[in-house]
């Protein structure tokens, strides 16, 4: 008010014009405590997205006590330029840039950086961006790769955030939390790790699709560890378990829970039939034709595995497409 009273009459129109121009902008609350945005620059990244760099200053109370020796002889040693990734804006990304203070203790001669209240503890991103990534992960509608592309954060960082989020939900005192609800039907299968020299096994609730257990290996011990984790009382509510032809899984489940009904899934039944019966008969017939001297028929039968295993509808569709001149494969000499 004192400033307005000291203005001359001819300066009032300029003041009203400045106030009106300010009201054209949206004032959005920020969780960046202590950060004051002074100017913002924009540039296009190689991937075609726009990046906003919000430059500013960090105004925080000066630290008085050394975190190492507890003495209060701290001095500003130097300042470093610091950038943190922030929330995406439209189709682009944003970062905040400011000067971060390094303190020097005059007693123990150790240095430490000024605490940034809005910085993630684990990564060079803001807490607001980390919370937004957790929100997207919890919705289960986007893959980690899609979230990485949306937020401009590396896929390894998204994976690390997701791991900590899941540990907070399902791990208590370093141990996996037991399922809160009972399951009627379980499914178990192994999958390859890395280059295929190692395996891991996962057990899921067939009705909800929730993963109940993941462990390295594909032997009986995986089943024993799972049953010990959930308990026999929990397993008494399970009626059946679906698995492949892995006899170790079947023997382990029936040994601990003989009331279970074992179900082999259709995929592995047909795969076993195709590998052991169809392919076996085809190879025997091919050898018989070669012994009889009919090499042309044997050569035609050699690459007929997928034809023999295809359904009639698939064969009719492919014959129809071939008669219409559709090219399914280009061969470049």
H/E element string?
A: HHEEEEEHHHEEEEEHHEHEHHHH
How much of the sequence lies in strands comes to 25-35%
Distance between the termini: 85 Å
> Count of DSSP E strands?
12
Tell the overall outline.
elongated
Task: Give me the number of helical elements.
Answer: 12
Enumerate the spans where pLDDT stays under 50 for 5 or more consecutive residues: 1-12
Query: What Rg is obtained from the alpha carbons, in whole angstroms?
Result: 33 Å
Helix content bin? 25-40%
Structural class: alpha/beta
Major beta sheet, specifics?
5 strands, mixed
Question: Could you walk me through the main structural features you see in this protein, from its secondary elements to its overall organization?
Answer:
By secondary structure, the chain is of the alpha/beta class. 38% of the residues lie in helices and 26% in strands. The protein has helices at residues 2-5, 12-22, 127-139, 144-151, 155-170, 220-230, 232-235, 247-256, 266-291, 295-302, 305-309, 312-323, and strands spanning 35-44, 50-58, 74-89, 92-105, 111-113, 171-172, 175-176, 185-193, 198-205, 211-216, 240-243, 261-264. The strands form 3 sheets. Strands 1, 2, 3, 4 and 5 form a 5-stranded mixed β-sheet that branches. α4 (144-151) packs across α5. Residues 1-12 have low confidence and may be disordered.
Question: What key attributes describe this structure?
Answer:
333 residues; 5-stranded mixed sheet
